[in-house]
Protein 1
Amino acid sequence: MALNILYVGRCPPNRMGVCLRLGALLNHLAHNGAKIRALDPISPNPPESVSGYSWVFHDRVTLLDQYKCSYFTTASDPGSTADRERYATYMGELIPQLVAADRPDLILIGSEYFIYGLVDVVEQLTIPTVLAATGPFGAYFRGILPKHVGEELLAAGARLNSVIACAEHMGRDLRAAGLDNVEVIQNFVDTDRFLDGAPDVNLMQQLDIGGDDFVVLHVSNLTPVKRVLDFAGAARLALQRDPRLVFVVAGDGPCRSALEAACAENGTVERFRFLGWVNQVQMPALYRLGDVVVMPSETEGLALTYLETQATGRVICASDIPAAREVITHGDTGLLFRMGDIEQQAETIVLAARDDALRARIGAAGQAFVRRHHDVSLAVAKHEALFERLVMDRARP
């Protein structure tokens, strides 16, 4: 069934992980025949944060130029009440216009915050509507969001035809909160892009990394939940035991300056390389540069970094949180350490650095696991089956 889909949510070139994931989903759906209009109704990233950024949408994806509303910036930032009301009014007027111009078979909402102003409208239009839950529900369950905001989002999500959770732990939380329309489709990666291989010699030279150095990579948006100061502390301890270590940080965000300051204070700044945002085209080469990848996060949905590391055949070392346990079996498909325990994080890094056979075994097992369970082709097929079922159900008298 070739579906006509209206997508409402953030789009690349925004660099948030959910944007990359949903942008890839839209491209693959379009490749399989779907017609898609993609609406990102809120302000894009500042031009300086996306300069040189490469993203090409499939020619069956039409980007609607509707940047109108300043609104949230992260999963834990719902914007002000005035922001939400202004957005709801704007969307309540815009969506009927878009539907009148070209009625979609289905509406896909790319984050909980985009629900505002949509539920009443789509119910009146009788168009099947699906939410791709990203992070705000998780922020509510962790007590980061104001209670009334989280309850508003849950109540709105319960009125949709389906809510897609990108991880099993998220699905369990949503069902426990009373949602009975939850489908779990775990996060995914294009495994054909992230292949094993030797590090790029030119990239090593650019970053002043020698052949005897052991590269410890961290990739994130450097927000507080990533616990990058733990990473700085673990690096200090690990370097005392293995001076070959070089720490490469890819990404940018509110904690970058604090991380750089911590490295300067620890006397480790010469063993760190700060890359800032890295173009998606260059990410496979970046993962191949790393010997291990470290994610000390206190919470995740199901981090793309886990999956991309495994797809590249590298070792993922992650804090022992529900998201990590969905894809990492300690000692088999990755290594786990207690969240917030910088001593154990350092021990894990050093263990991986000193044991070539362990890294080879874990890298191969992780790569096989992610290809078997998290390849993009599997996730796209699951999305298509869900969408087609909802459209068929709505078409029945």
Protein 2
Amino acid sequence: MPGDVISRIKVSLDTFHAFRDDRPKEEKWELIDGTPTMMPPRTIMHQRISANLAHTLNDRLRVAKPEWLAQLSVSVLPVGEQKYNPTPDVTVIDAAIAIGQIYAERFYFVAEVLSESDKPAVLAAKLAYYQAHDPCVGVMFVRQDRIEAELHIRAKVWTAQLLLDPQARIVIPVIGDIARLADLYRRTPLWRPDFGA
């Protein structure tokens, strides 16, 4: 089925997987609310921000939650899910995995590095999906065109904060203080010497 046709209809999870597996490898597809959605290609900037975040998360997790691990580009698919199969840029999952495991059934924190072409409706659907899963304590959307992140954290209720100051601390419940916002932009064109060490 052509991509421009399938992206306008609702499909089952099995149909989505068959379609996605038949597409060229350079295409990145996610199932969002039953609709196959092609995601923009990851730029080098996008990948570097993701890698910086995964690195800082794993440094903190080694101390705070060694049973968790931050992983790049892992599809999340809780048992029984039929309408969603996203692949966040960074996902905190259980460190213990099975040989041959493809999907993470449980996730504790997810981050998406945004592109200009990301549609607000898709981001809103993803946010609602991530927040609906009780093990998840945080969701972050990070800009790649400027130093900015939107951090959603679960305490008793979900709260959101917009981080604009490069020195702002990224604090995630249970995990703790992982880094400054600026640290996500190390070795990118947005990094400045005045950010310090």
Protein 3
Amino acid sequence: MNASRVSEETEIKVPVPDLAPVRARLADNGAARVSEVHDEMNILFDDADGRLASSNCALRVRHARGRGVVTWKGPASFEGAVKRREEIELEVPDPAAAERLLERIGFVPKFRYAKRREEFRCVGCLVALDETPIGAFVEIEGDPAAIAVAAAVLGLRHADAERRSYAGLYRRAREKDPSLPPDMLFRQ
């Protein structure tokens, strides 16, 4: 990734019972590995009044593979199952310093979520296999037509795509099981 990027994120996220069959289909279709399995820690920030969340925006600091990325995501719109939103990313050498900076200008950490992710390039899309504390998901990012092709190649249906963010999915999980901790973290 470049030091910074302004783009439109276009993706689908599909829950799956098991990532192994998807991994096998990626291999069968000559997908190129972009990253090995790695842990990610994501921290969502907002102001005290929750204005970003209430406007369907997000401000995130991600720790992954020894680096950090600060990301702002604009409001999402949907074309069928495909989510579109403006995304601005800035790579930072010290994600903890980025967190302190955000706190100094009035943002507070609101939600932490962990993932184990590996990434592939398949039929013109970036395919992420995510293991989370609430299940496994496949994210496919790219042009909408390419997303449809990649989903079909991987045996995934657009109808199964999840519109909620990981934060939204975890809120739903906590509604069903109030004993879950406030943040979506793997148990130690």
